[in-house]
Amino acid sequence: MRIAVIGAGAVGSLLAACLAAGGHGVLLAGRSGPGGAERSTLDLLTPRGERRTVGIVRARAAALLADPDPLRAGGLDAAILAVKRFDLDGAVAMLGTRPDLPVVTVQNGVGAEEAVAALRPGAPLVAASLTAAAGLGPGGESRWLTRGGIGLAATGGPRGDAQALARALASAFRSGGMRATVLDDARAMKWSKVLANLVGNATGALLDLDVAAIYADPALFRVERRQELEALEVMRGLGLAPVALPGADVRLLLAAFRAPPALARPVLARILGGARGEKMPSLRIALRAGEGPTEVAWLNGAVADAGQRQGLPAPVNATLGRLVAEAAADPAQRAWFRGRPDRLLQELGTGRAEGSGRA
Length: 359
Fold this sequence. Notes:
The protein is an alpha/beta fold. The chain is built from 15 helices and 13 strands. The strands form 2 sheets. Strands 8-9-3-4-2-1-5-6-7-10-11 form an 11-stranded mixed sheet, with helices on both faces. Strands 12-13 form a two-stranded antiparallel ribbon. Helix 9 (250-258) packs antiparallel against helix 10, helix 12 (300-310) crosses helix 13 (315-329) and helix 13 packs across helix 14.
């Protein structure tokens, strides 16, 4: 296959490296890079400590607007949009010269597929959910931190074309060593990934604590449990059932959350504490950086919004979503909650505290 990966961060680099390792032609386009397409290499460090050097083509993403065929030999089979959700519209604009090019969305949260379908009506569209943790090393190498895998599901454009693309991509990822599964229901897949994304994400971002520390605290565990069960209720209200993703069967996660907390907490603390490898959850990374927006609107915010439309309140998700958005915009908010579970619990239990000292 011949695939453009737009977004040269941790996720985009991992997907590009796996596809190239399977012998496929890959263009990796990021914010920086050569003005035109140039042949290059990418180092991939696997979970087993192996180093693979693969051949790719690099380009600056903006160059795609001027060059409809950057790989120069028969065109592209698909473009994988591996950017944050808030950068999605800009990534879609890069494909303006190729209105029929099939697109793959790998964003966390929900809503990316609907956004792309509105901008590119009629083009084949495949939703993807990545469960392998990825990072970038100091030398720019792609670091594959946990095995995980990728789920793929047809969701837009001609159904047969999208399904064929999902199957072809699954085969391409497998040829590069990544587990890949084709699923029947894109919305169920994306909402199932939301359930996984919520774990220790908003709470960890606000408190600047890792998942193990959060799950070691009985009060914070109750917050985690409530946000997950709220999300499950909203998902069921949408007529969706959780599905197993490669390397991440959220049905087992939910079964643990429904167990008595005294039994579930130590088990989940041990399992989830190391599930991401050394990779911090996305919202914690964003708040630590203190720059720009976060994806919380498409995670906790999406749960709260979908629940409101159905008459299914999701107050924990709504509050966490609001607090993360406020903290992203205000350093004083980040400092107020950092390392202070008592302040977060007060906010969740009684609403905004009077005289809290926060702007």
